[in-house]
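Check these lines:
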Amino acid sequence: MFTSLAEMDKFDSAVRAVLKAQQEKLSLTDDAIGKIAFGFMGGRRTKVQAIFIGQGADKYRKLQKLRLTDVMNLCEALGMNFQEVMRQAQKRMKEEETQK
């Protein structure tokens, strides 16, 4: 269980890292992922970028909050199992904590 907003943000960051690593492994562009994950939307590439790198200029850049359905669509688009992504993110988060 997460007991603070900071812990929740760290987990979201770990989920993003797991998904981004898979994107890089598959050499897929943001546009390609967007077409698969968010084909029903107009700004598919922008949606992917908002999730992974955020929107806004430099110091005002903010990541889009992760929605469960967005994560599920990204998992599917990247050929990943949702449960495995959650396990990998949890493991990554714990490893980062032990490195400190």
